[in-house]
Amino acid sequence: MPVAINDQVIPWEILRGVEGDLHGVPDSANDVGYLAWTYEPALASSTVVLASSTLTVCRVKVPTTLNVTNVLYDVTTAGATLTSGQNFVGIYNNSGQLVASSADQSTGWTSTGLKTTALTGGPFAVTGPYVYVAFQVIGTTGPTLAKTAAPSSNIPVNGSLTTGFLTRCFTATSGTTALPSTLASPSNGTAQLWVALS
Predict the structure, then answer these.
(1) Which of 60, 77, 126, 130 falls between 20 and 30 A from 36, CA-CA?
(2) Range scoring the smallest mean pLDDT among 90-94, 114-118, 135-139, 189-193
(3) Residues near 187 by Cβ (< 8 Å), separated by ≥ 6?
(4) 26: how many CB neighbours lie within 10 A of its CB?
(5) Taking the model in full, what pTM does it have?
(6) Is the link from the previous residue into 129 a cis peptide, with omega within 30 of 0?
(7) CA-CA distance, 66 to 46, in Å (whole number)?
(8) Which of 91, 71, 79, 54 is nearest to 176 (CA)?
(9) Burial class (CB in 10 A: 0-12, 13-18, 19+), 160
(10) Residue 166 C-beta-side C-alpha neighbours within 13 Å
């Protein structure tokens, strides 16, 4: 039977195999040194190539005001021929307004591993109930990031939230040499990335 923990529905079969402090119940983000995350990283059992010339966006639950300095995520396959000065990670507030952006990641995304991407000028105070982490990729092949296993449609991921913005994962209009100031033209997606804040 699925179990709901930290706004995530987790199959019991996975819970039994996840180490935690409560006899198999996954740790919270705070337990392992993060401020917040999209979900327990043991659930990131699949991957997705980030599409070029679009924003890939995921929602992070923020239980209280947090001072965020970095965005963490797992690049499993490197990107290639990324356009210098046009690849970024950023955080948007609950109204879809840009709060913070990283420096260009066109070099950083050409290698694999857990990435800790600093937000330029951080830390930044963010408030809930949610913030949105956006990845802008411009180039031939975007990096491949860890995510949950792909559902058959976007319904299991976004439930009854069908308007795009405020859903758990969606795409939006990208910028070019910088992240756009607002999340525009959102469209529901299925790329529920593993992302953490520190």
Answers:
(1) 77
(2) 189-193
(3) 164, 170, 171, 172
(4) 24
(5) 0.81
(6) yes
(7) 29
(8) 54
(9) exposed
(10) 8
